[in-house]
Here is the input.
Amino acid sequence: MPDVMSTPAPEQDLSEILKVRRDKLAALQAEGRDPFTITRFQRTAYSQEIKDRFDALENAHVAVAGRVVAKRGMGKAIFADLQDPQGRIQIYIRADSVTPEEFADFRKVDVGDIVGCEGYVFRTKMGEVSVHCESARLLSKSLRPLPEKFHGLTDRETRYRQRYVDLIVNPEVKRTFELRSKFIKHVRDFMDGRGFIEVETPVLNTISGGATARPFITHHNTLDIDMYMRIATELPLKRLIVGGMERVYEIGRIFRNEGMDTKHNPEFTTIELYQAYADFNDMMDLFEELLSSAAQKLLGTYHVTWQGEDIDLAPGWPRLTMAEAVKKYTGLDFMAEPDDARAVAMARSAGVELPKTAEPTWGNALYEVFDQKVEEKLIQPTFITMHPVDVSPLAKRSPADSRLTERFELFICHSEMGNAFSELNDPIDQRQRFLKQVELREKGDDEAGMMDEDFLTALEYAMPPTGGLGIGIDRCVMLLTGSDSIRDVILFPTMKSNVSGQIAGTGNIQSQSATIQTGN
Here is the structure.
């Protein structure tokens, strides 16, 4: 029988399609059979469950429910594909198996409608496991057409704006977000199993701190004060370490008022964790075990393909200091050149210029050479350690070299996956670092941090040696799913306002959908 979703048909104007569907709804309502008044349907089986247990369920009575995604048939028999959370299953309706009213109603069902069917499980002559319906009921009317199946919803902008349609017509999208959910559960299980406690900290703060980033600013009407949406959870979590909660973590949304690209969304998800009596080496071990175990558990392999590269997540990732990485990939030896001016000249010799807001120091020169010339070359998992103090205001200085900090970032496919420190717990040194950030802010660097007197007070009560780690959940999901854009792993990514609203979005769908089924 022909598939009405794929058989060429005259293109219909969208307004005509919308009118036809609304007319069908109005007719049902006039007869007192409004589908939107139905409150529940007792489903007893799902599509994949029926297929997997066919031998046990053959001829058994089941009730299935879902969205009609294909419909075909002529005369006295109709086939339709029903999509539910587990997948799709074929339903078969004959005129002599249901009431005349039910058969007539089902002939008018459109692709996109949600229906419930009761009947028995059987296998067709073509060998397809199906449900032979003995009762069929329209549960919800779709007043807009779905994209035609061969072209689907392919325009990325429309997919992100109308994620609900994207999830309906692109099954792989749902699998991405199922894996995201499983990864977050794995992270929680991993942390809970190591004695960490999950906590919650404020999203709104009176100052911005814990990272170098531009914040979103809002206003609290009752208190009549400006507040900042958090750019990190670091400072509240370290207050808890001071208070004696020695292993804490938070999985939560972070907000940064910065640029947008394939790796950055203004709101994103991180896990930050802090462990008393640990250092950045412990954090490296933990991060490596967390991510490699996630790959093995969720994918069954250490090998993933991301951005066209075969990535090996098997434990044993290399660890290079930032200076070693710069020397390896550029030949510049910053450790042999301690003078600020000559270090800046060395950077310029490699074609690297310091930002206007950065002071011309040895540390900033080293960092900018790494950022502009080395990061792009890091494909396999690599820990870059010992970052300059100039760019690490919250990390503990290295006992071996006061210009450096005990800090690392993990890079995979030239993308930063996480950031960690041996946390600075000296309140006097921390005050000086904050003052430097305030100075930079006064010079126009709106990403620099603010003075946090309460956090300094907390440190004065003494914080034990502590290791801290922040991991980008979205980046990890991109890696595990092979996604090229962060928007592919965030259900509702930030988008520029569409002044035309849903009409413009639907127009995009209609332009891809020349053969839309409107019913028989």
